[in-house]
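job 3f2a | input accepted
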Amino acid sequence: MKFGPVPLAEAEGAILAHSLKAGARRVAKGTSLTAADLADLKAAGHHSLTVARLEPGDLHEDAAALALARFIVPDMAAQNIRISGAGAGRVNLYAATPGIVSLDRARLEAVNKVDPMLTIATVPDFHRVDAEGMIATIKIISYAVPAAAVSKAGQGAGGAMRVIAPAVGSATLIETRVTGDIPSEKGRAAMRGRLERMGVSLAPRIVVRHSEAELAAAVQAAKGDLVLVLTGSATSDPMDVAPQALRQAGGRVERFGMPVDPGNLLFVGAHRGRPVIGLPGCARSPALNGADWVLERILCGVEVTSEDIAIMGVGGLLKEIPTRPMPRRETLP
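job 3f2a | predicted structure (333 res):
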């Protein structure tokens, strides 16, 4: 691509680099200049223009952005991604379903290393997304780029991102009470919201006493594809009531504790082939917490191992919550 000033008389067919006033109207940057545009600009007193001209082998910014998008998303249906139209050198990628975004970081980084004029920016890996939520934007920075660069960037990038749709249809939430009072609906409402946005139904309410025997019986009787446990008293040890109840029910505990704050007191396990999540108390709030990162993956059929949770700590310091009894910030005198 050639870029720079040219006499106005030689600019027809070139791409205007900067927006200009032409009498009562404005000729926008990126306009492929016509004879009428040049006449108006001349009448407005312009004698030379800064323009871009495509050379043999170049692709216009819009064509390049669309081509790169199609390299990365060769099968929209299989990848659950919708490619937008192109404009101003930009193409956006949208989720075709609720779910979580799965990225091949190395392959996407390779796209950005080919030519600084070719860019893709994405949401983080495992980011939860609603249907039609934007998950990436492809932007061609210059007005044109070599087609060979687009082809090089696209090679090997096919399928480097996809949206994993929910695989769980129903969930049972078991709550425990430590007194005779039924727990507030707040926690159940927050969990219902998390499930409904992923298209997952919540079974009728179950509240049992905070005892291993009653909780174990409730786990055994639960009908959902996923079992959630929200205790009236925080789980503070791998041998506490809720993890022990899961073991007593015939299940297993994969991990207790996670390096995400808020969300430390989470445990994950399984019972008869179904995942079980012991929720931390912060799950009673709709605000983001560590349980969301585990729940969203499990809802989409992605296995969450102890190692997966262990590596969540980098980036796992989330927003401070006002109800925390021991604030992370030092209190000044």
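job 3f2a | The mean pLDDT is 95.
job 3f2a | closed
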